[in-house]
Please model this.
Amino acid sequence: MQSLLASYNLFSTVTFPTRITSNTSTLIDNIYVNVDSCKYKVFPFINGLSDHDAQIMEILNIYYVNSKKHYELTRKTDNNTILNFINLLSYEIWEEVFLEEDVNVIFNNFTNIYLRIFNTSFPITKRKHHTKSNPWLTSGIRISCATKRYLYVSNRHNRDPNHKVHYKKYCKILSSVIKEAKKCTMTQEFRKLIIK
Model:
């Protein structure tokens, strides 16, 4: 594995345990990068859904950020572009791939042809950026979610069954609160539509 990573100039960025149980802690999930000049921070994100923590990488040396942009770049995908993609793939001869013997050259030729067709078929377009807001997500629910994550972490290292019972009750109550908040928000939105 190390020789494979070295051949592609990849190195790992995670240096903390990503799977923690009451008995063990192991680093089995990782983020690999091939740019050693990149400045970054990697930290765990404990979501309380699994014994595996997520990893978040924050890239620090991005120099240009235009806060006035209200659009995002996306690829145009619809039935026509998909059919065009399939059509172009079917007409490709693939001589550059099949006539080679070196696996690396075959892979590079295949990737180049595939990406050329992909980029031609699915051009990048600008789309207005719509921020999704959750009106039901109140500050109280945010605090409760943070408390739930805290209870999850403390519960991982604690063998007291009362802690597990308390955590499960807390999760159940929080789920019902979120469900009720969503229901109230939807009712209010529905009433607004009726009044209009």
The first strand starts at residue 11 and ends at 12.
